[in-house]
Amino acid sequence: MANIKDRYAIVGVGESERSKNSGTTPLHLALDAARAAIQDAGLEAKDIDGFMSYSENDSCTSHQLATYLGVRPKYVKDIMGGGSSTEMLIADAIGLIETGQVQTVLIYRSMNGRSGVRMGGGGWDVNMLQSAIEGGSFIIPYGAGSPGQWFGLFATRHMHETGLTKEHLGHVCVSFYEHAQRNPKAYFYGKPLTMEEYLHTPALSTPFNKHDFCLESDEANAIIVTSAERAKDCKSRPVYIMGIAARQCVSHAHYWSDLSEVASDYVAADVYKKAGVKPSDLHVASIYDCYSWVVLRQLEAYGIAPRGEVGNFVAEGNLRMGGKLPSNTAGGMLSEGYTHGMNNVLEIVRQIRHDYKGTDRQVENCEIGLCTGWAGPDIAGAMILRN
Amino acid sequence: MGYQKPIPLKTQDNQPYWDAADRHELVIQKCESCQSYSHPPGPACAKCGSTELSWQNLGSEINGTVYSYVTSYRPFLPGFQDDLPLTIAIVELEKTPAVRIIGNILNCTPEDIQIGMPVKMAWQDITDDRSLPQWIPVS
């Protein structure tokens, strides 16, 4: 297999407006995000010859997006997928560029995640859910219809085994909400969270209260991937992909009975090997944060803190600015917004480009960053980026 | 008013499990090729892909321990509004620890539930002809 280290780059990022009621369609949102990313890269729409998206049947198609950008690309692709899809699609894009199929690919996620189809349910037909969800007949009749409950089962066991506490979950939330105070576009800008307030918030579903759940938003994000060679022609500072990896482990997508391992455990070894770096080389991170606990479990998986010491790591403030690994510095999906992972990708690209230089939002001298995706314990992706 | 909550849908792959539940018995799919249990059941073994599957009848005296649990204070699905707080647990079977089954823990307050607590399977007759396997604490 060809070593692709540093041979491909993210050269543009962009987003639509973020709201809880966009009043428009995912196609309009995707067009806004795509135009912003194309402008950021200093390209023209016709320079994009591949379009890809992921969704849960709640978006527009790549074909539609290309059509209304006035582009007739060589390749369009829409996959069904969750929070590790960005990394998987970037890997696909690299493969297509490597084999000469296309030269420059735009990848997007567009959703009316609050006013339209809500990820956490609401209005679903329960019999449809039983059929649509793998193993659904074994969870839906028991009232387990939310990812918060499925992930909660994992979290309860993991916290029991490793000594993580509710307060440790709270440190993830408080750290990310603190980042959001530097991001005027974050939902919770102007709404910081104290540990006292966090601990007094009643549980929605143990071990989680509302702060441990990610947001829901109407929003589209887009990124542009091309070769390092072509990146030289772009206006933006390229962010090079040092390594990228994904995989499935744990059987079934929703009914989890083996809680001893997660896909991120395997992705971690693979991505570090490909990138040729180790956890201590990282300066900044975007860690998939659909739930606070998911961050803690990934800190363990990616070797950022050893199993059993992750709680102390976050309690020491290491996810905050000035900590060992400032993470989700726009506020993450817990407090900025939710586009199924892609808003965290945009933020780490901007950090590594030093877009925030001269402000208190910039992670000083950050050169290498880790971006993780987590569709669930069963499937994960990650990439390591550098400037 | 009839039963308001979702009733398990019988499918090509899971019908023996739910038919047994209706008789207040537990059957589990097993792979004859790699000898591992397969739960939830499927069209092939989730460990090795074999279609050499059989059903093991574990009877009606099913004991286990709580492997993990959550307690929900909001109904995340329609029909559960009168069941709050609702505890959902993964239970490890005593005789076949490789099998872990998700269900609700009944007759128990959330404060009393902990990992490792012993429970036994009890069947809730939810309609005239359907029963739902559940868990109750072993006193």
From TrEMBL, chain A:
Cross-referenced Pfam families: Thiolase_C_1
Thiolase C-terminal domain boundaries: 252-377
InterPro entries for this protein: Thiolase (IPR002155), Thiolase-like (IPR016039), Thiolase_C_2 (IPR055140)
Transmembrane annotation, as ranges: none
Entry coiled-coil feature ranges: none
PANTHER family: ACETYL-COA C-ACETYLTRANSFERASE, NON-SPECIFIC LIPID-TRANSFER PROTEIN-LIKE 2
Protein name: Lipid-transfer protein
Organism: Neobacillus kokaensis
Organism placement in taxonomy: Bacteria, Bacillati, Bacillota, Bacilli, Bacillales
UniProtKB/TrEMBL annotation, chain B:
Matching InterPro entries: ChsH2_C, ChsH2_Znr, NA-bd_OB-fold, Thioester_dehydratase-like
Pfam families the UniProt entry points to: OB_ChsH2_C (PF01796), zf-ChsH2 (PF12172)
Positions of the ChsH2 rubredoxin-like zinc ribbon domain: 18-53
Domain ChsH2 C-terminal OB-fold: 63-124
PANTHER family per UniProt: BLR3430 PROTEIN
Protein name per the record: DNA-binding protein
UniProt organism field: Neobacillus kokaensis
